[in-house]
Each structure stands twice: as structure tokens, then as C-alpha cells.
Amino acid sequence: MVDNVPAHQRMHHFDAAQTHLILDYVTERLSMDETPLDFPGDKGVIDSVLNGLVTAEGIPTERALGIYDDDVSKTVLSADSPRFWAFIPNAPTKASLLFDMIVSAASLQGISWLEAAGAVAAENQVLRWISDAAGLPSTSGGVFVSGGSAANLSALTVARDIGRRRLIEKYGPEARLSRLRIAVSEQVHSSIKNTLSILDIDPLIVHPADHRLLGSDLADVLAADSDPESVVGVVATSGTTNAGIVDDLAGISAVAKQYGLWFHVDGAYGGAGLFAPSVRAQYSGIENADSFIVDPHKWLFAPFDCAALVYRDPALAKSVHTQKAGYLDAIHHDDGSYEWNPTDYAYHLTRRARGLPLWFSLIVNGTDAYTEAIEHGIALTREVASEIEQRANLELIREPTLSVVLFRRIGWTSADYDAWAHDLLVRQVAFVTSTTWEGEVVGRFAFAHPATTFAMVVEALDALDVDSAG
Ligand SMILES: *Cc1c(COP(=O)(O)O)cnc(C)c1O
After folding, report:
1. 405 sits in which H/E element
2. Ligand 1: which atom is nearest the Cα of residue 240?
3. Is CATH 3.20.20.140 what the domain over 368-465 is classified as, yes or no?
4. Under 8 Å between Cβ of 158 and 316
5. Tens of pLDDT along 407-421?
6. CATH number 3.40.640.10 given to 107-359
7. How far apart are CA 183 and CA 219, in angstroms?
8. Is 110 helix (H, G, I), strand (E, B) or coil?
9. How far is residue 387 from each of residues 103, 284, 332, 394, measured CA to CA in Å?
10. Which of 137, 298, 437, 448 has its CA 20 to 30 A from that of 80?
11. Mutation to probe ligand 1, out of 145, 146, 149 (largest number of atoms < 8 A from CB)
12. 148 Cβ closer than 6 Å to some ligand 1 atom
């Protein structure tokens, strides 16, 4: 028995009872057709539950798991519930969730080819599937990072350094000090603004007439600019988070080419639409991207935390991100043997092989299942949009393009939307949050889960009929 083993050794010994408790919990969770939405937590209650749990001797697994199940988990809104329509939902497949446990149980890291060849090759197989869908060349490649924010930061670091190198080649070493800029639409994701601030790059903000960035908007701004050479890149969004708008990628890429700009496409949310034939044409021009990102933890049915980052010319990224240290020499060869070190393509070093849950699910379920699941979200969104148009008290704010829909409840203020959302959550009908559109608070749904039904949404829309939720 494990009992007479000292504690510091016991924690690395197999404990059958502990293992069964955890696996039974996981089995029960995975067996749910619909995970419960649950509720926001109260700090005082949570603090009192957690108080004193960190002890010198530890507490029994059963008690710890009970606390997690009864108290902790109930205050975590289930992003994988088919009734979670706020922000961007998460809808991991069962196979991806199960394989995520293997990634943990086997401590699968994915730093270098030397340490993790098979895992790296399997992750790269998924990156190839994504790159092919975007029409990027077969020499493109990249890495899975923790999220869209990390992916955008890593990609734009490369954009900055490559742009700066070019200016130094042209103007000499003094160009090292010149301010650099990257063009972005006012609709760009908040993580891009953060990235530019971290990288100390000024945004060149473009204001498209109808929120969708066009090539002509970028061309006009650059033509009117006194120092266009300081602009080293442009960010286009393939599916804005707030409204699902896909920028004019073809037009923007043409202008980027003319000015020699790094063309980055942020598809963290909407990149999944590449796999949906009904909307694929909107992504025309993405094949010209220098870097492209998509978050499988959003609309490609992978668990948190997973973002795919692909570069047209990975050698450029490698030249920027490779970490050099004596103890790391062993992972780099100069002998021409195959080398693909995922760590070289983003700002990190140690990394979990977080692309593998998607890889496993993709090969088990097949790509058609992915296409159909994404198309479900698009079709549902269109159905909901036409339902909104038919209701006298509602107005559709714009025709949805992907799986986000914005609408107005005539006569409502921010407090009314809040009260409506609160009531839906109390009744566990849905988790929704309002957003701001052109300065006005409006209703918003974002769909990703294939188990979300039109009837569920109708229930939420019916609750908009009451005169004032407040
Ligand atoms: C969600 C999102 C991001 C940020 O991704 P995280 O995974 O949350 O870091 C960036 N850009 C867009 C368009 C997004 O929708």
C-alpha cells in the first residue's frame, strides 16, 4: 500500500483510488449532452470555501474534489455549453477533450524536434491543413501558441523586425532608431492594440466607412501620409469579434504588396470560416498573408488554450524568435538534417503540445465533420437574423456574415439588456452579454456550438418581448 511511503514520494506514486475519482468525474462530465451554464461567483463565498486549504500535510483527494465539484466549478460559466452565446464560445469535441488528458498525462511538450519529433510532426500536420485551406504555399509553417493574443504578438514582432531590417539595409544603422507604424482598422481586436503597445509601434488607424476595412481605405491613408515608409505592416481581420466582419483581404493584400508591408491576418475567431464553403469566398486574398492566425479554441472545436500561427516564410520568424543559449545548442543543428523547433516561431520557449487535441479529433472525426459543424453555426446565425427581422420590437443591426449577430431591442437601454441577460442566466436559458456598436449598447449573440438549436435562441428572443426587463 502507498500508506507507508513518505509523502514526498507518495505524490509521484500511482494512486488507484485517486485516479478513479478523477476519471469518474471526467467521464460524468463528458457524458453530458449539455453542460450546465452555472453562475457567476461571489468573492466572499469563494474565499470562505478556499480558506485554509493549503496545508502542510494536504487534504484527502475526495474532499478536494468535492470542494471543486460543489463550490469551485459551479462558479465557472461553461463556455462549452450550447447556451453560451457571449464573447466567443468554446465547443471542444469529446475526442479533443479526451486527448487533452493524454497530452497532460504523458507530459507532452513540444519544444523541439529533438525532444518531441512525433508530436511536432502531428501538430504540423494540422498546421498544414489550416495553411492549405488558406491557400498558403507548402513551405509555410508555424506553431500553436496559447491564444490569439500570443499569436498576434509573435507575428507582429516578426513584422516589426523584418520591416526594421529593411529600413536599416536602405538607410543604414541610424534607421534602427526610427519610429515604426503598423496600419490597423478601428475595428481591430484589443489584443492588436496591446501588441502594438508592447512592441512600441504606433498604430496607423484607418476608419473604414462601414467598419469593413477595404484596400482603398488603406491606399487612401497611405497616399495621404507624410512618411509611408515608416509603416511596416498592416493587420486585417477575418472575422471581427464584435460583429463577424471579414475585411477586404484581397484589396488590402494588393496595397500591402505595393507598399512592401507585412500583411497579417487575424482570424482568431473567424478563421474557421475557411473550412465553410458557404463563406469561403469572403476570405479571398488570405493566400497572400505573410502571417495568419486562427484560434482552434474558438470555432475549431478544440479545448483551451490553442491558437494556430502560420507564417508564409517561417525562416523569417525563426530568425527573429530563436532563443540562443549554450544549453539549447543541442536542439539546433547546422548539418542540414531535418529540424523544426516549434519554439523558434513565437516568443516562448517551453510549450505544451497543445495542437495535439485538435490533431487527434481531426483525424478521428474527419474534416467533413468540421466543415458541417462550422456551417451549422453560420446557418443558425442566418436563421436567427431573419427571425429578428420578423419581430416588430427588434431590428437587425447588420446582415451577419459569420456566426455573430447584432440586434437592437427598440426602446431599450443598457440596463434593460443587462436585466434581460441576468434573467436568462438565472433561468439557465442562455449566457449573453450586450456590446457597443456605433456608440449604442445593443444585443449580441455569438454561436459556435453545433448543439445550439434555433429553439434555444427563440426562447431567449421571446424574453425580449416584455416591455422592459428592468
Ligand atoms: C479572441 C480574439 C483574439 C484574442 O485571442 P485570445 O485567444 O483570446 O488571446 C484576437 N483577435 C480576434 C479577432 C479575436 O476574436
Report:
1. strand 404-409
2. 13
3. no
4. yes
5. 999 999 999 999 999
6. yes
7. 11
8. coil
9. 43, 30, 58, 9
10. 437
11. 149
12. yes
